[in-house]
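In this section we walk through a basic example: taking a raw amino acid sequence and producing a predicted 3D structure, encoded as discrete structure tokens. The instruction is simple. Fold the sequence below.
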Amino acid sequence: MVWLAVFLAVLGAFCLAIGAQRQGSAVKADTGGLALSSHGLLRLIRNPRWVFGLLLLCAGMAMNAVALVSAPLTVVQPIGAIALVITTIVNAKDQGLSINRATVVAISACVTGSAIFVLLAVNVTQENHHVSFDDELTIVLLLTLAVGLFGTLALVFKHRMSAFIYILGAGVLFGFVAVLTRIIGKHLLDPNGLALLNVQWYSVVAIAAAGGLGSWFVQSAYSGGPPDLVIAGLTVIDPIVGIAIGIAILGELRPDVHVVLAIAMGAAASLAIVGVIALSRHHPEVTKRKKDARKAAGRVS
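The resulting token sequence is shown next.
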């Protein structure tokens, strides 16, 4: 089941990457780089390119949900970094940009780090077959705090929030959503036969609230930056949040893990994170924007 989950997570990453690129280009064309409004979102719903991206995103999330139920969070979550690589390549071709050497190095670091981490995680994680209601409630309460914080920021600084803050908020919220999705999936598959009766109403409400606000943050981030940056933020922050909860609250790391393996996992994760950060700073569209900005500044002076 673990390797099936890895396969579904990889396939889901492809869907998420292409879907994000389609939606990102549609939002950018509609807003022209300005903040996304409620009227703009209604226009996007009638945009075939945006709708196609939405369908791919839904398919990718469905595959990721199945993967989360079938394997520990520490195995599934890091695979999302692959989506960043795909998005960068697809977006570069769509925009007619060439991928520079720094981008190739960043992609290599991202893929290598993620692959090593997943291979190690398969051998050092353990299934948590039963999540206590106390642990579930703790996660929901923490998510409530996150929703309140980022929701307040969105209301107070509606027209002044940077793409980075939107990306940060979306990454944190979707990290919690991934955890609760896995927990609810386990409840539905519980052998006691109660199915939906095992699911706590507050977890469903929490997922709906976090998913809605996180989705709005993602769309808003598209209007202020290329899809590569959005995926870069999500593939760093989302897994970090999910893995931290999986280890600290759900106890998915074996107690007998050797120190060398723990260090190797940390090194692999660090390599992947450095690759993602480098990719978000040096991918072709960012380089092009910097050059255009310097040219514009030169003409003004």
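Looking at the output, two observations stand out. The mean pLDDT is 81. The chain has twelve helices and no strands. In the next section we compare this with other chains.
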